Amino acid sequence: MKQENVAENLIDTHTLKAMSTALGLAVEGISQLDAQGQYLFVNEAYARMVGSTPAAMVGMHWEKTVALADRERAIAAYKQMLTSGKVELEVKGLRTDGSTFDKALMMVCAYDEQRRFIGHYCFMKDITRRKQRELQLQQQLEQARLITGIADAIRQTLDLDQILSAAVGQVRHFLQTDRVIIFRFQPNWQGIVEAESVAPNLTKTLAMQIEDSCFTKGYADYYRQGRVSAIANIKTADIDPCYVKLLQRFQVKANLVVPILQGEHLWGLLIAHHCTAPRAWIPESTQLLQQVAAQLGLAIQQAELYQKTKEQAALIDIATDAIFVRDLKGRILFWSKGAHRLYGWSAAEAIGQTTANLLKKRSPAALEVAINTTLEQGFWQGELNQSTKSGQKVIVSSRWSLVKDKQGKPQSLLEVNTDITEKKRLATQFYQAQKLESLGQLASGIAHDLGNMLTPILGIAQLLQTTHKDADAITQRQLNLLEKSAKRGVNMVRQILTFAQASAEKETIVDVVSLLQEVIDVVRQGLPNTIEIRQSIPPPENSQPLRREVFANSTHLHQVFMNLCINARDAMPTGGILTLSVADQLIADPTLSPTAVEATAITPQTAGHYVLVTVADTGTGIPSEICDRIFEPFFTTKQPGQGTGLGLPTSLGIIKSAGGFLQIVSEVNQGTQMKVYLPLAHPLTKLPNV
């Protein structure tokens, strides 16, 4: 041992004896022991803690003051003191009457003047109250964790068997008892054990039907009032002999019973059995069981409601409507097959999720109104915009009903949603068709009148240029401007009449390849040098006639391709590449991409053999937010005076008349492809497998 440690721990024996009177009055236990561990001096406080007197303890070995369970640990600490000079520890002390208490010890070696070990000094403090407070706090924490764990289990699952089984296991572990059961009453006040946690060597009662002839309506009323039964010893307790006999069948020596209530309805009992010996149940144990029983009552109520809803749902799974139940926090409790079909989420994926995360409702204000109205009035109906699993937007007609518990308190919301997306789309198309029909009739009348006005203006302009060939340059420019303006007005009238379908021209066999070549020749003259034309068009002499001829009005088709080329030019103000191509297209499956735009539907009516003409540019592209509007009459993104907004609607009408359809592929800042599908004038008699 180091010299300084020896000096530190050296206590003068004569000084200690001189102070023995003062030490005897100390509150803390103080004692001196010889090298063999026997007491030489013990003050009053030390002896009082042990339940003895100072005189009686002199000569006693210190091991007799330590509980047997802690004796080995105390001996190990004593040996450590011999090495280090001092040691501190907490052990169970043993009183002379055999009872135990908690004590904190500090043992310090004592040496003589030659620094030889002559014994040690022991300072003792009774820490029983502190230990009890610590134990009580620990039990409270464990009890809180237990209740929280059961509450969490209730929130995470509606599987009642799983909840009950977990609860009895946790309660038995906490109480350190032999058996915990949940007993459910039947209408005749007999019942069945629904859940059990039991020690391995005891009789198992799970699923056992138990008939208690002692249990009468009086007992039911007793428990219905929330009262508990705590029996410390069934042999000495004042209970019916038949009840004692029943408990003895299951080796019970003490039991604690609390009711499981649902309002005033007595659902069952939560019971703790102690079988190894009698047991005095402390108030904390009773409080724990009462808290657990309250949580179980809530879990049972929710599970039974869920089971009832599930049974009803089996009848409504054949419905096309989406039907689901959610709690007041938006968490989904039930999800029908109709909901799976509409939204794409399976029941396993949806249950436990919140409707806000799952359906991504896009109208929070309307949603808040729906929730508040349902909670206040019990019902709400209206339309909501939602999203499916694939991200597709849907519109639903929604009906909400408030579900209440037995006490009349709001418990959950039942929501029934009908997909009206297609209905809305058809209604929009119908209204649009009506609007276009009215607009067409108006435009047709105005166009005829304008045509009648423009015809003499154009004729006179041309006549004046013929009769005034010797006019000065300014006059010639003015007459030329007059003629061009009149012609432009006539062309606009023709375009309006075409859009309004007020002019019917003869349809013939049209060679698409030859027609497109003519369009390219015209367009090339009006394109700036910054735009390059590329084409992928088979030469007419190398093409098969059946693969390039369509039945349509050639002038109208010419107008379609001119409109598409002009739009492509305008989409490339700083230059780019304009590509025109012709290809065969066999469509065996009439389902196309949903980006296809048609005159009558999103997909073609029938499969067939088509000529595909593609007009592509590398321009600005079409933003998704206006892609659905570009076919609206008079809608244009061009500057005033640069476009009428009738080019694409007119082109779509012409393509429709020819039995074809139009598909758009566009990406902002990457370019646009306009794909025109025109049915062959002489289709193949049999389509190959594609």
From TrEMBL:
Residues 87-139, 380-432 form the PAC domain. Keywords: ATP-binding, Kinase, Nucleotide-binding, Phosphoprotein, Transferase, Two-component regulatory system. It catalyses: ATP + protein L-histidine = ADP + protein N-phospho-L-histidine. Residues 445-682 form the Histidine kinase domain. Gene3D superfamilies: 1.10.287.130, 3.30.450.40, Histidine kinase-like ATPase, C-terminal domain, PAS domain. It is an enzyme of class 2 (transferase). PANTHER family: C4-DICARBOXYLATE TRANSPORT SENSOR PROTEIN DCTB (PTHR43065:SF46), SENSOR HISTIDINE KINASE (PTHR43065). This is histidine kinase. It comes from Leptolyngbya foveolarum.
